[in-house]
Amino acid sequence: MSEAAPGTAPAAAPAVAPGVESVLPQVPRLPDRLVDQLAFPSRDTYTPMVAAFRDAGFEMCSDLCAVDYLTHPGRHLPDGVTPERFEVVVNLLSLSLRQRVRIRVQVPESDPVIDSITDFYPGADAMEREAFDLVGVLFRGHPDMTRILMPEDWEGHPLRKDYGVGRVPVQFKEAPGPR
Amino acid sequence: MSDHDDTGRPDDDSGLPDDDGFGLEATEREHREAEAQRYFVAETYEGAQELRPRGTTSAGELREEVGAVLRLPEGGYVDPSDIDIDRRDDQTMIINMGPQHPSTHGVLRLMLELDGETVLRTKPIIGYLHTGMEKTGEELTYVQGSTNVTRMDYLSPLNNELVFSLATEALLGVELPPRATWIRMLMSELNRVSSHLMWMATNGMDLGSTSMMIYGFREREMVLNFFEKTTGLRMNHNFIRPGGVAADLPDGWEDDIEILCETILARSFEYDELLTGQPIFRERTEGVGNLSAEEALALSATGPILRSTGVPWDLRRTMPYLAYDKLDFDVIVGTYGDNFDRYSVRLNEIRESIKMIRQIAEMMPPGDFRVQDRKVTPPPRARIDESMEALIHHFKIFTEGFRVPEGEAYVAIESPRGELGCYIVSDGTSKPYRMHIRGPSFVNLQTLPLLLRGGLMADAVAVISSVDPVMGEVDR
């Protein structure tokens, strides 16, 4: 559990309410030049942390997506965070503080389930459905966990790295083309 | 399947004679195939996407469904009297609207539960235009990537290219020459004008004003002509690329811009006469599809929808990118969050954008229009004829692309529809490991069930239009 670099977010520190500070020091953080906070909670601390951020004035969940790290395992993570195959990335936005925070949660392949945050941010509804549909991470407690972009009887999750892109053989070469 | 059958048959103890086996085999294979199908589907199947009739929906599910659109950030509480659980199935009717309905702006499909003419429940069903652009983006290099993203929101292609380029540049860490930044800003604002004009046109048509449709398209064509002159294409420009823009502005662009601004600004006041003050238009828009600021924030709505509820949130002002902090402009907000407010926000944003375009044209700095980094920018065409190295560089950039350092970046800009975000994960190669686009229309579409609830079926078209969904971006 590293408290990351001291220069993580000097401007954000006074503006963050005590509720968040009680959650944040327990989770590893990394400095990032594009967002004010970059937090890496575990699956257990994820929902309380999102709730704490919402109470601290982060009114909007601006983005939620999932990433499949199957073929890129060696990414840069802070100490104490075990890389897993899937990662759920949540971008919260505070209109009053004019800040963004990015939360990245590791989700293992054997049990790709994570708690839904639709209780705190109803707007995450469609985004969680999209993450389920395309990457195959299930959100526990989501009111309508169905496919959203693909047909409902589709097999597989297209944005997984082991899901083929489909190939058309190139006529003038033995090797198949890139697509 | 076949080895399944081979191993399965001797074990089978059906006791039926062999001559009868052919029929048995066929039915058994069918049965096994159905089993396997059920197994495979069960792995990924999480239920139907459609709106279910009341008869098969329990009270709890109904409450949850309504809660999903009415839940406020304060908690999961829903007013029980707000859900008509007692209403029986035979009193209501579920009808399909779309995906081929002309006023759904593409292939949006809505399932509406009606009681007479009143809309009770709505479910948008999307995905009819899903072409897997995020997956395609993983297969294309960063050089090719902007041709892909420009096709997402086809009414504001330059904004898509802009957000993709900004995210790539954030990972690359390159500093753009000022002229490139200002050209980007100019094109982005012109695109906002053309996109809003297109919205004015289609919104007018949805409300029965055919003249507005013709006028909107006529003015938009002026902007598109300028785009064609600058980029070579009316749409899907691939003009803003990682590292700058594709070409400098054409000779005499200042005059074109001045004529364009003057004409569109003057005509925007004609729209006032045609629509804003017109009693029929006001009757159909005022107080229709109301949204409060809390609901808009909870549902992550951005852009004109959020601003129409009175929240002055515009990324150009609140989190400036490019050089928007050097411009003087107003953020337009509404009060009631109804159709009329969304109309006036967009109409006034056209005027604000024209104000900004004039400032940009005045302050346009001289210099390079793309970064002079040989690893990112292809050499100028003239150099290729005289220098072997230039030819090699050109070839390398367009076949292999350039490598982008490992890392992740989320960049958001204010597109005509709201917060357009791009999250790129790079693994150090020349292709994005993951490219996620946060489409504003996709998120804004979640407000539809709330906007339509309790309203009239006849207003549904007007409300869909006022949300301004572009299906290319919703489905990606």
In total, the number of strands of chain B is 8
The CATH homologous superfamily of chain A is termed NADH:ubiquinone oxidoreductase Nqo5 subunit
**Outline of chain B:** globular
Assign the structural class of chain A, choosing from mainly alpha, mainly beta, alpha/beta, alpha+beta, or little secondary structure: alpha/beta
CATH architecture of chain A: 2-Layer Sandwich
Task: Explain what you see.
The complex is a heterodimer of chains A (179) and B (476). Chain A is globular and about 60 Å long. In chain A, 17% of the residues lie in helices and 20% in strands. With 179 residues, chain A is of the alpha/beta class. Chain A contains 3 helices and 6 strands, in the order H-E-H-E-E-E-E-H-E. Chain A has one domain: NADH:ubiquinone oxidoreductase Nqo5 subunit (Beta Polymerase, domain 2). With 476 residues, chain B is mainly alpha-helical. Chain B folds into 3 domains: 43 residues; 72 residues, no CATH class; 343 residues, Cytochrome-c3 Hydrogenase, chain B. Helices cover 51% and strands 10% of the residues of chain B. In chain B, the strands form 3 sheets. In chain B, strands 1-2-3 form a 3-stranded antiparallel beta sheet. Chain B has a 3-stranded antiparallel beta sheet with strand order 6-7-8. In chain B, strands 4-5 form a two-stranded antiparallel ribbon. In chain B, helix 6 runs antiparallel to helix 7 and helix 8 packs antiparallel against helix 9. Chains A and B meet through strand 2 and helix 3 of A and helix 2, helix 3, helix 4, strand 6 and strand 7 of B.
